[in-house]
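Sequence only, no structure available. Ideas?
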Amino acid sequence: MALVRVQVPASTTNLGPGFDALGVALRLYNRVELDELPWGLSIHVEGEGRDTISRDESNICLQAVKRVYAKAGRPFRGLWMKQRNHIPLARGLGSSSAALVGGLVGANLMLGGPLTMDDLVQLAVEMEGHPDNVVPALLGGFCISAIDAGGRAVYTRAPVVDRYLWVIVVPSFEVSTKAARQKLPRQVPLADAVFNVQRVSMLLAAFATGQDSLFRHAMEDRLHQPYRAGLMGPLEEVFAAARRAGALGVCISGAGPCVLAICAHNPGKVGNAMREVYLARGVGCRMHVLRTDPRGAHAADIAMAPREDAPRPA
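Reply:
I predicted one. Tokens follow.
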């Protein structure tokens, strides 16, 4: 069996008003290597999460591999797996979705591709519970997704002007998606729902046409960011610093606590302005200046021989 290597992009979601609907793949990657074994598990993790990601049956990537085998009607016997992670965990950049998607795509490659892309999307959404991260991780680019009345994901890619730079500031503290979702109300005022419909419509126009002046208002939100702000540190100060430094728009990335700024120029100036706010509060942080990833998850390369260090039966 061939050793399969899959590269999966990070993803940022919501973009302000597009809660659980908008997602963008970014050029920050995890890589997963997979090889079938006749028995047992051998799981290795490098980089982000090396001290916390499980090496047993609870591993998300392993669970995704098994779902593909089950869907394809193939017996699962054993697996050698190495996760090489550059996407920070619990920061709002789709780390769990990247792990899940890496397992789905890698397993499908190992089995010769019995599942379609739509099969993989539906499995990913079923496992993750919402489509906004897994769809861009699979498809790449700027994606819009929804769940229909039957529980299936409906999705598409949308046009986006390629000149924009995505500045991500990653604070040193974590916020779990579960904790962030627990802050959300079960109902919101009609006026707030209308507010977000207006903004998300404007945001799609801004990305498609390159009208920079639209972003400042188009990335405003009333459905999730105000409720989550208490988990995010000096959020409003960070937003204000980004705007003063020239960001077109700024928002929480996914469930946070990463902050995303869209820039046409001077991304370093914008990122450093946000970093200074965190540092003044005693919060360490990192910065990435990224572009959109157009490919989504894909085979990095395939070595046509088993790994020499993989365990074999005696």
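The chain has two domains: 3-158+294-303, 165-290.
Hope that gets you unstuck.
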